[in-house]
Specification:
mainly alpha; 10 helices; 77% helix; globular
Length: 191
């Protein structure tokens, strides 16, 4: 996978370079799209790219897109133990501050976490609220990311996310209502 990651890093950098001609940029886009469509372990590749502070922001954002793609297309085919591992990984993305104070990376990380929350909470992630509360107490950046996550989840559940099926949206709304007092207590305690 190392060679394919090296190639994808080069392709993303070429695709985002304003000095590259149209033909080379299109070729680089094709490499990126082919990688996304055919990568068997998009989750691992995406998380690896997002966490590498030495890479360009564009490459790290592409890593976020890969991780989201894995959640959307591979989550249903993995064992519960691996889902738990993915959940722990997204919590680390928040707690270890991989966004480096970049608003774009913060948004990308929240998108990845939000997708996983929408797919697995509360049925397969009963400790989400406790996990987020614990992380939010570790620092200002982590608190901000947790608050952004709550905002995104609220927006997506309130019908802004058209990809969310109606039944799943209803499950999430019910779950949010059940823990609303915990959410309000959390928000009040952060003020």
């Amino acid at each position: 996978m190392e060679e394919s990651l090296r190639l994808i890093v080069e392709a993303v950098d070429v695709a985002l370079d304003p000095t590259i001609d149209h033909k080379d940029r299109n070729r680089a886009y094709e490499v990126c799209e082919k990688f996304r469509a055919t990568c068997d372990d998009a989750w691992t590749a995406g998380v690896f790219l997002i966490t590498q502070s030495s890479l360009s922001t564009g490459v790290r954002l592409f890593g976020g897109q890969l991780a989201q793609h894995a959640i959307e297309h591979q989550l249903g085919n993995i064992h519960i133990d691996e889902i738990t591992s993915w959940q722990q990984t997204v919590l680390q993305l928040i707690s270890l501050n991989y966004c480096s104070y970049s608003p774009a990376l913060s948004k990308a990380i929240i998108c990845v976490v939000g997708e996983l929350v929408k797919k697995t909470w509360p049925q397969q992630w009963k400790t989400l609220m406790a996990d987020l509360t614990a992380i939010s107490q570790t620092g200002t950046v982590q608190l901000e990311l947790v608050l952004l996550l709550f905002g995104r989840l609220g927006e997506d559940v309130s019908s802004c996310d058209r990809s969310l099926h109606q039944k799943r949206r209803q499950e999430l709304v019910i779950s949010l209502h059940k823990c609303m007092s915990d959410i309000f207590d959390f928000i009040i305690s952060t003020i």
